[in-house]
Amino acid sequence: MTVIARGGRGRVTSAWRKRLEIAFFVTPALALFALFVVWPIVTAVQLSVFRWKGFGPLTDFVGLRNYLTVLGDDVFVDSIVHNLIIVGGSIAVQLPLGLAIALLLNRKIWGQGLLRTIIFVPYVLAEVIAGVVWFQLLQPEYGVIDGLLGAVGLQTPEQGWLGDPDLALWTVLAVLTWKYLGLAVILFLAGLQGVPEELYEAAQLDGASWWQVQRKITFPLLGPTMRTWAFLSMIGALQLFDMVWILTGGGPANSTTTMATYLINQGTRSQNFGIAGAASVILFVIALIMAVLYQQLILSRDTRPDVVTVKKKKKVIR
Amino acid sequence: MSASNAGVLMRAPSTRNGTQNRNRTRKRGSYGGGHPIVYGIALVVVALTLGPVLYGVLGGFRTNAQIAQDPSGLPSPWVLDNYVGVLTGPSFWQYALNSTIIAVLTTAITVVFGVMAAYPLARYQFKGREGLFMVFVVGLLFPATVAIVPLFILITQNLQLGNTWIGVALPQAAFALPVTVVILRPFLAALPKELEEAAQLDGTSRIGFFWRIVLPLSGPGMVTVGVLAFVGSWNAYLLPLLLLQSEMKTLPLGVADFSSEHASDTAGVFAFTTLAMIPALVFFLAMQRRIVGGLTGAVKG
Question: Which ranges does the record mark as transmembrane (chain A) (predicted)?
């Protein structure tokens, strides 16, 4: 009896000890996360149903009126469209280009390592620094881009690439492509390393052409990498702020605003914190819906084929 | 003793993988290699990638008159005034110092809190473990942008940490935690169970195991997440833009200010931007493998 009782007590104290240990390890991270991530997001939701100019208590409850204001504001609706254009444009341009360059760099060519490093350079630069350099390059009078195009005999826009409302967004997209293509290439290259060499050898023995090999082996096996990259790219494009703020500030004539520049303008410039709160909730909901849809429609495909590739990979290693 | 032995054991497979990969790429050359067209395309890619950066570096060595006269020309004569002007001015060094301190603080907080949180999530059995992990996974979906306005109010008004280094580092670390935990958890879970059993037989507690075995062995993983946190902080713009003024600004803010205040001084802007690029480029290229490893790890996990 006493033995059992002692054993029981020992188990209880060790269970408590374990709980204390878990708390000790997890609390700092959770506290930081709760204070600086969860609390501000909850506050954004709270602010979104008040009219508040940044001082005094929250008393002016307006229900969903801020949301109606934001969604009725053409500038914000255009911002959503701009974000979606950037999402679609980034993926449509960077996916084929990134794949092509990754396949190119995956060949045995001289200076391969150097090439990989160079392609990664734009990605490690701060968006602001890249933006400031490109802003100078794109200047209408003394910018080198117009100079070079003019030398070849091409007409350049009079107000500059960033000054023309019809061209500004596409110019921003081009600069973003320059900045982020390296990430796609590096990720695809890493994915290519995971394709078992045996498959290529077998295909070669069967007399498959280079293009057939890519289409039947490389692209399908690179699928999970491509889909995950596209997901990261999408989330990033929905939050786009730095590059736009530096290149155009959302102009000209609001032709390049994004949801993020809109909420910063409303929040910190015009002190319309309720409006900014509603805009950030809408931004989050759009990001969440797109993430969930993407997960359901596209990423979920990976669960089955992934098992197959993992098994194959293990075999290779053995 | 046992820790260092285990370190060798842990390192051995990774080097073997490395050579295996290298052999594989070498073999892959069988599908066509250095065709002239391939080199041609590679050259175009390099030119487009590096062109703008090099143009900025060279532009810093020219005068504004040179640039206005012939935008696409080379420096003639080479002028050092722009670079000297930036380097002898006080603001560049102050901004660089602020950037460094904030990035180091962010990295330290992220790595310490992150590895602590990842440890029980990886190696303890307890109810609610997966739920706790999901908190961090969902956190991946929350961009700082969404919470930026309340974050600004929280830090400047409630915590009175506006315009301080730690006031920027704390929220940056908080937003870097999800990816840190997500990368570190499988890393810590992969440490062999035998090590833990051996430590228990030796009478080491789980906390002792954490200090003496987990921390030394998870060095590579911590470097990876540390570099990611450092990169994020060093390049950050939005949060510092809202929180920092005058003397406390970081390099990205300084670059943006300089470019709007001296908009007509193109050569000066190029010199300032180039100098702001150098520390980042050197550090990141040295750490390239870690960054790539961390990113691909995040994609696969």
Answer: 20-42, 80-105, 117-137, 167-190, 229-253, 273-294
Number of other CB atoms surrounding residue B246 within 10 Å: 9
Task: Give me the architecture of the A78-317 domain, per CATH.
Answer: Orthogonal Bundle (1.10)
- Does residue B233 lie in a domain region? yes
Instruction: List chain A domain ranges.
Output: 78-317
CA distance A134 to A153: 22
Question: What CATH number should be reported for the domain holding residue B160?
Answer: 1.10.3720.10
Please write the tens of the pLDDT for every residue from A70-106: 899 999 999 999 999 999 999 999 999 999 988 888 8
Cis preceding-peptide flag for B52 (omega within 30 of 0): no
Tell me the residue length of chain A: 318
Strand-pairing partners, residue A61, are A50
Smallest CA–CA separation between B209 and chain A, in Å?
12
Q: Are B251 and B96 in contact (CB under 8 A)?
A: yes
Last residue of a domain, one of B79, B109, B140: B79
Burial of A178 by CB count in 10 Å (0-12 exposed, 13-18 middle, 19+ buried)? middle
CA B120/CA A55 separation, integer angstroms: 42
Identify whether residues B165 and B137 lie together within a single domain: yes
Contacts with B276 from chain A: Cβ below 8 Å: 129
Identify the domain containing residue B193 by its residue range. 90-300
> B237 and B156: one domain?
yes
For residue B224, the distance in angstroms to the closest alpha carbon of chain A comes to: 15
Taking Cα atoms as reference points, which of B230, B43, B60, B235 lies closest to residue A123? B235
Interchain contact B75–A (C-beta under 8 A): no
Domain count, chain B: 2
CB contact under 8 A, B145 and A239: yes
User: Does B99 lie in the same domain as B74?
Assistant: no
DSSP for residue B74: P
Residues B273 and B224 in one domain: yes
When CB atoms are compared, the residue of A128, A235, A281 closest to B256 is A128
Tens-digit pLDDT profile for chain B (301 aa)? 333 333 333 333 333 343 444 444 444 444 455 678 888 888 899 999 999 999 889 988 988 888 877 777 788 788 888 898 888 888 899 999 999 999 999 999 999 999 999 999 988 888 888 888 888 888 877 777 888 888 988 998 888 998 999 999 999 999 999 989 988 888 888 888 888 888 888 888 888 888 888 888 888 888 888 888 998 899 999 999 989 988 899 999 999 988 888 878 888 899 999 999 888 788 877 887 777 776 666 655 4
ipTM over 0.95: no
Which residues of chain A are within 8 Å of residue B59 when distances are taken between CB atoms?
A: 136
- Candidates A35, A32, A44, A59; CA nearest to A285 is A44
In this structure, the answer to whether residues B68 and B201 fall within a common structural domain is: no
